[in-house]
Amino acid sequence: MFQGEKNLMIRNKLCLFAIGGLFAFLAAGVVRADDSALLDVLVKKGILTKSEAEKLEAEVSKEPVTQGPQGPNIKIGDWVQELDLYGDIRFRDYYQKDEAQLPKPPGATAYDQNIQRQRIRFRLRLDATFRLADNFFGGVELSTSDNKDGATTNATYTSGFDNYNIYISRAFIGWAPIDGLTFVVGKQNNPFYTTELNWAPDTGPTGIVERVDFHRLFGWDAGGEPAGYSKDGKTPPPAPAPSGIPIDVSLIAGQFIFFNNNADSNVSFDKTDAYMFDTQLLTKVKLFGGNVSITFGPQVQIWNDAGLGPTGVLPNGQPNPATSITATAPSGTGAFGTLNNANPFPVTSRDEFYLQAPGDITFKLLGGKLPVTLYWDTTYNVWGPQRFTDVYGPLFSKVTYTGTNATGFTAHFSNPVRPTFQDYFGWLVGIKVGQNKHAGDISFLVDYRQIGIAAADPNINSDDFGDSNLNMVGWRGSVAFNVTDFAVLQVTGWFTNNLDRNLYGGFATSPSLFPIANRNTSTVLAIDFGVKF
Length: 533
Known about the structure:
Distance between the termini: 77 Å
Strand content: 35-45%
Number of strands: 23
Largest sheet: 19 strands, antiparallel
Order of helices and strands: HHHEEEEEEEHEEEEEEEEEHEEEEEEE
Helix content: 10-25%
Number of domains: 2
Structural class: mainly beta
CATH superfamily of the largest domain: Porin
């Protein structure tokens, strides 16, 4: 072989190697061209033989075709401007001791008037909040709960290493077409400024909310977050005005569906669905450069007259809370399903018209490092006397018994009780010192309250104070310490006794199936350890 021929062979092999690499690069999808046309040109130029071109084309066709550089594994729509994922888990040791109001029958040996309960509980909440284009926003929350209880997201550890249910506790969409005007629909955070006197902290109403922030609408401040968009599960109060008029004024209105009745039912005493309507005028004033703030939120809460599930009509026209077996009740239970809160009253929403007035004064001491808050709340049921008598009653102040241990005891009530102002009025006053934001922070809280039997709705109140009973008066005390920025250890106690000492009979106390005023005393102690993530 001549040297020139040898050099030509080497050159052709190098060229073939380079072209093969080029075609591999093209086949990988970085650049795509007409491969056959390019090979034909190379054959005509004498760079490749026909057999070499066919071999190269066959090799390249075996390479997988990809689509270039891959994007992120998690994709969201272009209309999603912000997505925030967060949650918390809390472990609780919960001790409870109650004394039943109905006294022990004389000579009874099987009656336990003092009831003790100790539970290990936990709470898990998984949240996603988002902002969308065109001023839309929303949120979703998944949480634990016992029996779908809408007033709490606590779940009790049971036996056998059981698994636990997860529920949809929030699912809402909001729209703020202009700054200062907001609409929210769905199961949402409580949109009102409240205390525990009237609302359980975890309760999330379902319906439609309209909010007008007048200070934003008329340019008193620089704007802020829309209603319903906050990590602490509450609608954020109006942002303080950075300059100009130091007053924020908001009107918040909600129309909520509480119970959906069967319109064709011949059992429900009222076929109308149960609704709650709530309107609040919320005002916040900041003084002395923001070191003192005053918040006041008077509101009107009214419920329509409707049945709440397992109710029929008694011969006297009053609602029947299924205290006796009915032929139409499934499996002879006398009930068609009840509400799921800790101490439900699934009878009627009749005669509920509450005037409420929560507020607080906050002082920032030590350069803002030590906030001190004096807070209060009141509630007055305009239709309280009627609810006391027609819904919960008739109620009596004396009880006697007939029977024996062998035959069983029967309670007899006498001395009818007429309602007084304290039976349809409630109030709360308290103080909180400190805050819990960073490691080492500590806060203290103490408040005193009393709540008449007809002063608040028993289906949305707190199940910690008095075990969700009405006709209670007592104290709450709490201390919370930040172990880290994200972990808090807290101890809370509730200590209550009844407001009307002798109150028996009717639908409100034993032997009713749904007693909501059935405690002489109640003591609750909760030790919590919570972690945010």
